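lol forgot to send this yesterday, sorry. struct tokens for the thing we talked abt
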């Protein structure tokens, strides 16, 4: 059932039965949502049903409200979709629905138990497309990222990785100081590097505030 040689003839046989073909697509997309880590499955479904059609259906699903009773599962599925999207820079979801995607990330992130491995580089790649590709990042978007980071600061299992993923999008650098005592040595070094020579007077105020 997950093989191109099986699926392609089946879809072709339903060419005169669009409702049945559409229902078949929906069933395979349900299967895909549980297996986004299998890129070959995504490619097979796109090739057989058509890339534009598949992407459109997945975008509608991503942008739809969460189903009651399945919030946690659906959140993880949606993050998996974002993080495993091939060729993210050409994704119609990330190009045409930037603010919707950012709102989803910032409001849903702390409700989902994503592993550090899944977060690594994936979050920053998505943020690059929905934020930096448009030029200057608005103050409202920066504040949304700061609020998200604030909600994560007591999550010692992943706070440092989340900081790595979002720190390049947050300005001004003074904003980092509120997180300084929560970060590991490597991330503290990143903040010190951002400040440069001006960190010395800042460090004195930090020591004073901690005492």
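and heres what i got for the seq, position by position
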């Amino acid at each position: 059932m997950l093989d191109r040689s099986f699926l392609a003839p089946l879809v072709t046989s339903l060419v005169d039965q669009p409702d049945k073909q559409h229902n078949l697509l929906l069933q395979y997309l349900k299967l895909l949502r549980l297996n986004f880590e299998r890129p070959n499955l995504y490619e097979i479904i796109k090739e057989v049903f058509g890339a534009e059609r598949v992407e459109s259906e997945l975008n509608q699903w991503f942008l739809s409200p969460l189903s009651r009773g399945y919030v946690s599962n659906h959140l993880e599925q949606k993050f998996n979709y974002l993080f495993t999207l091939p060729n993210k820079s050409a994704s119609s979801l990330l190009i045409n629905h930037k603010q919707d995607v950012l709102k989803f990330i910032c409001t849903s992130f702390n409700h989902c138990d994503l592993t550090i491995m899944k977060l690594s580089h994936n979050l920053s790649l998505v943020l690059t497309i929905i934020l930096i590709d448009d030029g200057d990042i608005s103050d409202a978007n920066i504040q949304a990222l700061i609020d998200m980071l604030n909600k994560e600061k007591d999550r010692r299992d992943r706070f440092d990785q989340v900081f790595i993923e979002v720190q390049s999008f947050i300005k001004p650098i003074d904003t980092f100081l509120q997180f300084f005592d929560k970060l590991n040595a490597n991330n503290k070094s990143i903040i010190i590097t951002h400040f440069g020579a001006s960190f010395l007077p800042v460090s004195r105020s930090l020591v004073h505030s901690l005492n």
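The mean pLDDT is 86. anyway ping me if u want another try
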